[in-house]
Design a protein that fits this description.
Distance between the termini: 24 Å
Order of helices and strands: EHEHHHEH
Helix content: 55-70%
Largest sheet: 3 strands, parallel
Oligomer: single chain
Strand order of the largest sheet: 1-2-3
Strand content: 5-15%
Number of strands: 3
């Protein structure tokens, strides 16, 4: 991918270590990206059209780049976003598990509310407020289904979109340009 490509994200740092979380003790390849750098990359990728190929170009201001460092950076970025995609998929599975359990609880509650409404309605059928008690119980039963329906209709879309975005970021080419390349291109 060329530097002029529309999906190319450019990140300028003084030194490569600025891209990584300084509190993460893991080796370079497995270290987490700095939260601000990761947020910048994700936000930039969100602005790109969904079908557009992404690429990350990291420009170092004070440090030369070599092929080994570029390969380590590429692997680290890819692994970071692969882990983020896996976490979002796990979040989605947990959300659906919660949705199924909530749906079961809501349906049981609704059935109980309908049965109780019918029983109380027959018990106090001669009173003027019997319909109010009956309808209130039924409405309460339907409200118990609110959360499962919210999960299955709306809540899962953003999580799935995040996982797909992280998959795109995990597959994007990453290039590294050192301070020596910038000086050479200026001459």
């Amino acid at each position: 991918m060329t530097a002029a490509a529309a999906g190319a994200m450019r990140l300028y740092v003084g030194e490569l270590r600025q891209l990584f979380d300084s509190l993460d003790p893991a080796p370079f390849r497995e270290r987490d990206l700095d939260p601000k750098a990761a947020e910048y990359i994700v936000d930039s990728a969100r602005e790109a059209p969904a079908g557009e190929a992404l690429a990350l170009q990291v420009h170092l201001g004070r440090q030369p780049a070599d092929e080994g460092t570029a390969a380590l950076l590429s692997d680290a970025v890819h692994e970071y976003f692969e882990r983020r995609a896996a976490v979002r998929r796990r979040d989605l599975r947990q959300l659906f598990r919660t949705g199924r359990l909530s749906l079961l609880i809501g349906l049981v509650f609704l059935a109980g509310a309908i049965a109780l409404a019918q029983w109380l309605g027959s018990l106090i059928e001669h009173e003027g407020y019997a319909w109010l008690v009956s309808e209130s119980l039924i409405i309460g039963g339907w409200v118990a289904l609110w959360r499962p329906m919210e999960i299955f209709l709306y809540d899962w879309w953003p999580i799935r979109a995040d996982a797909r975005l992280y998959d795109r970021l995990a597959a994007m080419p990453v290039t590294l340009r050192g301070a020596d390349a910038a000086a050479g291109s200026a001459a």
